[in-house]
TrEMBL record:
CDD domains: KH-II_YlqC-like (cd22533). Signal peptide: none annotated. Forms a complex with KhpB. This is RNA-binding protein KhpA. The keyword Cell wall biogenesis/degradation applies. SUPFAM superfamilies: Prokaryotic type KH domain (KH-domain type II). Belongs to the KhpA RNA-binding protein family. InterPro entries: KH_dom-like_a/b (IPR015946), KH_sf_prok-type (IPR009019), KhpA (IPR020627). Its main location: cytoplasm. It comes from the Bacteria. It is found in: Cytoplasm. A probable RNA chaperone. Forms a complex with KhpB which binds to cellular RNA and controls its expression. Plays a role in peptidoglycan (PG) homeostasis and cell length regulation. The keyword Chaperone applies.
């Protein structure tokens, strides 16, 4: 899942080397924390959050077969 998130986000940003995805696993869910360069934050979120919503939709769909819920947080 980390590779999927990186594959989606890296082409969108100006500083792909700063993209980091960390997973935090709990008993019933997995939270992925996405860190990008401060200057790329607007590109990842998009106008009115449309890009972030699209990324989350793809990630949630890819993780829907698992038993744990998937969450994606975009961290500054």
């Amino acid at each position: 899942m980390k590779e999927l998130i990186e594959t989606i986000v890296k082409p969108l940003v100006d500083f792909p080397e700063d993209v980091q995805v960390n997973a935090l696993e709990e008993s019933d869910r997995v939270t992925y924390k996405l860190n990008v360069n401060k200057n790329d934050m607007g590109k990842v979120i998009g106008k009115q959050g449309r890009v972030a919503k699209a990324i989350r939709t793809v990630v949630y769909a890819a993780g829907s077969s698992g038993q744990k819920k998937i969450f994606l947080e975009i961290v500054e």
